[in-house]
């Protein structure tokens, strides 16, 4: 559970990694930031572990398209992950859900904020809780780039090798957390209650892939 959101167990987001312009496909990687990037899509739990990490989508792609092209999308659509028990709220069964921002598509397994223009007070309160919970993935990306500073720089290697560097840093991030290494948490202020995502996200485990 993230904050007081029942059965909302993990958060999803993307982050950009700056690279040198690749030959022949530079336009695909050119972004609104006026630089060449590829995208990392990650799913994290409340303890800041990466549960799924897909690196290498062209920087010009939107988050929704990156998700739809990912392995995790097919798994979720075919009910092969997020298979923990549902909870009853107001006569409705609430299944396990991912939390995403407004860039993601709404799905039975993925919740996003309500459109701002038409929210009532209850929806505003829900969105506030959702936003607070989603900070987990932003903090995890912050930890990753703060610890492995190479990811905050311009990777001049070929895309294939830059992807391997990025995935390796994510694996090391999890390794350090699982071995309870000390972290410099000056930029991390998040506290999340009742972290059970790793246990509840049945069938998912931890997966790392280069797109």
Automatic annotation (TrEMBL):
Tell me which Pfam families the record gives. Answer: DDE_Tnp_4
- Domain DDE Tnp4 spans what residues? 12-174
For molecular function, the Gene Ontology terms on record are: hydrolase activity; metal ion binding; nuclease activity
The answer to whether the entry has keyword DNA-binding is no
Could you list this entry's UniProt keywords, alphabetically sorted.
Hydrolase, Metal-binding, Nuclease, Nucleus
Question: Where does the signal sequence lie?
Answer: none
Give the cofactors, semicolon-separated.
a divalent metal cation
Please state where this protein is localized: Nucleus
Xref: PANTHER family = GH03217P-RELATED (PTHR22930:SF85), PTHR22930
- What family name appears in the similarity comment? Belongs to the HARBI1 family.
Q: What is this protein called?
A: DDE Tnp4 domain-containing protein
Q: Which organism is it from?
A: Pocillopora damicornis
List the top taxonomic levels of the source.
Answer: Eukaryota, Metazoa, Cnidaria, Anthozoa, Hexacorallia
């Amino acid at each position: 559970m993230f904050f007081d959101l029942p059965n909302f167990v993990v958060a999803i987001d993307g982050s950009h990694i700056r690279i040198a312009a690749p030959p022949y496909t530079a336009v695909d990687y050119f972004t609104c930031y006026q630089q060449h990037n590829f995208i990392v899509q990650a799913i994290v739990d409340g303890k800041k572990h990466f549960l799924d990490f897909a690196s290498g989508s062209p920087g010009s792609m939107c988050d929704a398209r990156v998700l739809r092209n990912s392995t995790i999308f097919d798994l979720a659509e075919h009910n092969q992950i997020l298979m923990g028990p549902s909870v009853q709220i107001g006569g409705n069964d609430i299944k396990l859900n991912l939390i995403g921002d407004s860039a993601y598509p709404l799905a039975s397994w993925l919740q996003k904020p309500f459109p701002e223009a038409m929210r009532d007070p209850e929806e505003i309160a829900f969105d506030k809780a959702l936003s607070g919970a989603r900070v987990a993935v932003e903090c995890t990306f912050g930890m990753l780039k703060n610890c492995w500073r190479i990811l905050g720089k311009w990777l001049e290697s070929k895309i294939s090798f830059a992807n391997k560097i990025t995935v390796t840093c994510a694996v090391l991030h999890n390794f350090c957390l699982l071995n309870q290494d000390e972290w410099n948490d000056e930029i991390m202020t998040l506290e999340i209650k009742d972290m059970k995502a790793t246990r509840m996200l049945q069938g998912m485990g931890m997966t790392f892939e280069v797109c």
